[in-house]
Write a structure and sequence with these properties.
Blueprint (H helix, E strand, L loop, with lengths): L2 H5 L2 E2 L2 E2 L9 E2 L9 E4 L20 E4 L8 H11 L4 E8 L2 E14 L4 E5 L15 H27 L15 E5 L15 E5 H8 L3 E3 L5 E3 L1 H5 L4 H7 L20 H13 L1
């Protein structure tokens, strides 16, 4: 979503800006509580503030405005939690462009840490601390958080960086494209950030994860030897075998958004070892 559209939003003919550039917590005049929260865009080389803000219960955290729990914006967000009102979370994915995460809810206030706990999925709304003390339950809650927030934002950023094209074959059909990790989520450096990602069509994503296809640090492709020797139909021949030693067909124009060389090297060594 474009910032200008959010600023000029109208409901029943009345302009109600959903965002302004000066505030992370948005409470329109006349409303009892906050309507929206915002996280600014982090350039490709940086780590977004939400990436390492999952609590021990698997829920996402959102920091207060400043260090005063009674700041007007913090009170507005706290009130949204008290009233159990849904919020819109606008996460910056490019300069002036936001991915809306809706609905989210404030489910706990943590003044000692200057933050709120958020539910980003309805299944998280009524969890008690005891419910997430079990490791399996906690892992389930965290998976929901990553799917609803981290991976969704990651996909949007990857598609913007690669202009909705598969890095390997340049296929442009959005519904057939995935945001693939170079280093898997949960591993060191496996963050959902653009330099750790590639836009891949579903065939090439599966081939990459299945160690049929490797990507060298110089952005050329390596198809496994036994696959090169197979005889099959046109998909194998044109979609995989002919890609061997070819260079990626689509890479981001912005240098900082291109695949991280160190991550590519680690992934490529794992491919060779297989």
């Amino acid at each position: 979503m474009d910032y200008n559209w959010l600023r000029d939003f109208k409901y029943n003919g009345v302009q109600i800006p959903l965002m302004d550039r000066q505030r992370g917590i948005r409470k329109p005049a006349g409303m009892q509580a906050a309507l929206a929260i915002r996280t600014t865009f982090t350039p490709p080389g940086g780590t977004p503030p939400y990436a390492d803000s999952i609590g021990p219960d698997g829920l996402q955290r959102y920091k207060y405005r400043g260090d005063d729990p009674n700041h007007a914006e913090n009170r507005a967000l706290r009130r949204a939690g008290e009233l159990k009102l849904p919020l819109i979370w606008f996460v910056g994915v490019a300069e002036g462009v936001y991915e809306p995460i809706y609905p989210v809810w404030v489910v706990n206030d943590e003044p000692a840490q200057l933050q709120f706990a958020l539910a980003v999925d309805p299944a998280q709304r009524f969890l008690s601390p005891a419910a997430t003390s079990d490791p399996d339950s906690r892992a389930y809650v965290e998976r929901l958080t990553k799917a609803r927030l981290h991976q969704r934002v990651f996909r949007t950023q990857i598609m913007l960086a690669y202009e909705t094209r598969c890095a390997v074959c340049a296929l442009r059909h959005d519904s057939l494209l995935d945001a693939a990790h170079i280093i898997a989520d949960g591993q060191p450096d496996g963050l959902p950030v653009v330099p750790n990602g590639l836009a891949l069509c579903k065939i090439h994503h599966a081939a990459y994860d299945g160690r049929i296809l490797g990507i060298r640090p110089d952005l050329t492709l390596h198809v496994r030897e036994d696959i090169l020797a197979e005889v099959d139909g046109p998909m194998l021949r044109h979609g995989l075998q002919e890609m061997h030693d070819q260079r990626l067909m689509a890479i981001p124009k912005v240098k900082a958004a291109r695949p991280d060389v160190d991550r590519l090297e680690r992934r490529y060594q794992a491919f060779l070892a297989s």
